[in-house]
Specification:
alpha/beta, 4 strands, 147 residues, 5 helices
C-alpha cells in the first residue's frame, strides 16, 4: 500500500535520543499514520520547553509526552509535534517499554491528533487507540495498550 507524501522537519532541541530517532524511521512512523499528504515538524524538547509550551497552550503546568499543534487537516495535514525527551524516557522506563517503541507510539499518536483524532470521550479514545494499535502492529511494534 502506498503511503502519503510527507514533508518532515526534524529538530532536536534535546539531542539525548538523536541516535534512536534517525530521520528515515521517524518519517516511516509518521507516514504510517497519515491518511493524506503531510507537512509536519517534529521537535524533540527538554522538560523546561515542554512544560512552558504545555502551560502556554493548554494551561497545564507540567511537561507532557507529546503536544500536537494542528493547522490543517486537508488537503494537506499541517502540524507541529513537540515531544518531550525526558517524559518519553521516564514513561518508557516506568512502564517497562522499549524507548524506540514508545517514541514510535508518541509520533503515531501525535500524527493521529493532527488529523482530528481525539480521546476526550470514551468512544473517541476507543477508536483512536484501536487505530494506534493497528498502525504500530503493522510497523512491527507491540500493542501499546497491552501491558
Amino acid at each position: 500500500m502506498s503511503r502519503p507524501d510527507l514533508s518532515l522537519s526534524l529538530q532536536f532541541a534535546d539531542a539525548r535520543h538523536r541516535e534512536q530517532l534517525p530521520r528515515h524511521k521517524v518519517q516511516r512512523w509518521i507516514r504510517a499514520a497519515l491518511e493524506l499528504p503531510g507537512e509536519i515538524a517534529v521537535r524533540i524538547v527538554d522538560a523546561e520547553e515542554g512544560r512552558q509550551l504545555n502551560k502556554e497552550f493548554r494551561g497545564k503546568d507540567y511537561a507532557t509526552n507529546v503536544l500536537t499543534f494542528d493547522y490543517s487537516h486537508e488537503p494537506v495535514v499541517g502540524a507541529d509535534l513537540v515531544i518531550c525527551a525526558e517524559v518519553v524516557e521516564r514513561e518508557a522506563r516506568e512502564m517497562g517499554l522499549d524507548l524506540v517503541a514508545h517514541y514510535a507510539h508518541m509520533l503515531v499518536h501525535g500524527t493521529l491528533h493532527a488529523q482530528g483524532y481525539d480521546h476526550e470521550e470514551d468512544d473517541e479514545a476507543e477508536c483512536m487507540e484501536a487505530r494506534e494499535t493497528e498502525i504500530l502492529l503493522a510497523l512491527g511494534f507491540a500493542d501499546p495498550y497491552q501491558r
